Request: fold
Amino acid sequence: MFPRFNNDQWSSLFWVACGVIICIASFQYGLGTLQSPSTGFMPFLAGSTIILLSVIGFVASTLGQRKGIRWRRLIPKGAMWQKVWITVAILFAYAFLLTPLGFTLCTALFVGFLLRLGKVHRWPSAVAGGLVTAFITYQIFVVLLKVQFPKGPWGF
Reply:
């Protein structure tokens, strides 16, 4: 019934369809011209980019299929589901704690826990990475770009 595509080819076709839908929907807002773009110009550009990258991926996976690469498991055997669920729980905790703890503290905790969860870093370097990340993102978003994030109990 279906052609014998591998999973990369199927995902490429899915993203081509998504890009086509985005491009069609962007016409409703009008594209304008290059000198005076309208509201639909950027979505059309994004949809076109998705289509282009998906076609490149489809061609690359087709060439790989000719070399003998067939269907591969999307989730490898022995996947650590416990880490996945812990990461999802940390994401939810970040969303719920962002307002009461503030952006800086919540980001430092979030990044620190994620660095430690990967077991790439020990606790001291994970905490340092979280603090450095929170400081840099604070400087970029709050100081430079003037984005208003929730302030924690300490006012930052």
Q: What stands out?
A: The CA atoms of residues 11 and 41 lie 25 Å apart. The mean pLDDT is 87. The first helix runs from residue 7 to 27. Residues 7-66 form one domain.
